[in-house]
Write a structure and sequence with these properties.
Distance between the termini: 14 Å
Number of helices: 9
Structural class: alpha/beta
Shape: globular
Strand content: 25-35%
CATH topology of the largest domain: Quinone Oxidoreductase, Chain A, domain 1
Bound molecules: NADPH dihydro-nicotinamide-adenine-dinucleotide phosphate, zinc ion
CATH class of the largest domain: Alpha Beta
Radius of gyration: 20 Å
């Protein structure tokens, strides 16, 4: 059996196999009135997928193993670009044949105060594109696959100027940093932004902050990414492995955006005094479940600064971001990998080893799946 009854994707059912997903057929979720089927063309690889496959965000069992129906298998992938091949009877936002992007959110109630105020990523009934539960118990399956099924609201129209393999990383990583950058510097005069962790999200945060008019400081643990960060548009580079790196940075930033995937090298007691009065340290980085943020209450005291987080972004912000990329002509730095069991394994393993400059996009889905 094949599409539409069955999708095919690269799946695991045990976290110990995180690096070797196998080609598997599985039943998609029930086709809802607002659902859209995307025939996948390409898909970025985000560090969240490593945490999900390794079960690193949970002390319990892997989500797919407790699903009430559907596959006991997990396909990740949430920086999807592809073609709409089927739409439910109520769909109005796209049509068969459109090229769309899908990020890390596949559904929301579309009826609560958050959904009605461009904050649907915070909807209490939001369902992630992979590794999450639909109300009926089906565990969502992502985009390392022939097809993926999602609510129309989360399927974003892509401007024709943006090539698929370069716009894929904007669907999750780009959107995740765009939302807090915009929300924290909008309306400010000559804003200064610090971006910590120059990986997939961080490198896009440099370009996006620049396009939004900020002076940008790239923070990395060492100097190896300095030249690249400057080419991406950073005005300054700070190696936090150096002693006294925070000297002269007091009272500087309107926003410190943490994009690092681990908190082990974060010195919050040195970082927070670098914020201007009442400004925010926002962590989009989500480390392993056993890692914490460590900070002294006195570190907030001198400038009345705040600390928080941010989740993905809204449909409105996704569309704004893609238009910004067209207008300011920035593109993520992408290395493409041909999709296959070996290709998926290679991408995940290299990302886990930090061997990526700066985002992988899996390509060649039509060729591989014969779609
Ligand atoms: P990458 O692996 O591409 O980049 C992470 C960066 O973190 C590295 O390049 C490195 O930067 C830094 N880093 C790595 N290891 C350590 C360490 N031990 N200590 C300190 N810094 C380290 O990951 P992504 O950009 O794909 O994802 C980043 C984080 O964002 C992940 O935790 C991911 O789960 C999360 N995320 C959150 C979302 C949200 O909605 N909030 C959405 C998507 C992702 P450098 O070498 O410059 O120091
Ligand atoms: Zn992601």
């Amino acid at each position: 059996m094949s599409y539409p009854e069955q999708f095919q994707g690269f799946a695991i059912n045990n976290p110990k196999d995180w690096a070797t997903p196998k080609l598997t057929s599985y039943q998609p979720k029930n086709f809802g009135a607002h659902d859209v089927d995307i025939e996948v063309e390409c898909c970025g690889i985000c560090a969240s997928e490593l945490f999900a496959l390794q079960n690193g965000w949970s002390h319990g069992e892997m989500a797919c193993l407790s699903s009430k129906y559907g596959p006991k298998t997990q396909v990740v992938g949430h920086e999807v670009v592809g073609k709409v091949v089927a739409v439910g009877p109520e769909v109005k936002l796209c049509k068969v044949g459109d090229r769309v992007g899908l990020g890390a959110q596949a559904s929301a109630c579309m009826n609560c105060t958050r959904c009605n105020s461009n904050n649907e990523q915070y909807c209490a009934q939001a369902v992630s594109t992979y590794c999450d539960f639909y109300p009926d118990g089906y565990v969502s399956q992502g985009g390392y696959a022939s097809h993926v099924r999602a609510h129309e609201h989360l399927c974003f129209p892509i401007p024709p100027e943006l090539p698929s393999e370069l716009v894929a990383p904007l669907q999750c990583g780009g959107l995740t940093v765009y939302s807090p950058i915009k929300r924290n510097i909008a309306g400010k005069k000559d804003p200064k932004v610090a971006v910590i962790g120059i990986g997939g999200l961080g490198h896009m945060a440099i370009m996006i902050s620049k396009a939004l008019g900020a002076e940008v400081y790239a923070f990395s643990r060492g100097y190896s990414k300095k030249d690249d960060a400057i080419k991406m548009g950073a005005d300054h580079f700070v190696a936090t492995g150096e002693k006294n790196w925070s000297e002269n940075l007091g009272d500087t930033f309107d926003l410190i955006l943490n994009c690092a995937s681990s908190t082990t090298s974060l010195d919050l007691n040195a970082l927070l005094p670098c914020l201007k009065v009442n400004c925010n340290f926002v962590s989009v980085g989500l480390p392993h479940i056993d890692e914490d943020l460590k900070v002294k209450p006195f570190s907030f005291f001198a400038n009345g600064c705040n600390m928080g987080s941010s989740k993905l972004g809204s449909r409105e912000e996704a569309i704004e971001l893609m238009n910004l990329a067209v207008k300011h002509n920035f593109r993520p730095w992408v290395e493409t990998i041909q999709v296959s069991e070996a290709g998926v394994s290679d991408g995940l393993t290299r990302l886990n080893d930090g061997d990526v400059k700066y985002r992988f996009t899996l390509t060649g889905f039509h060729q591989f799946f014969g779609t």
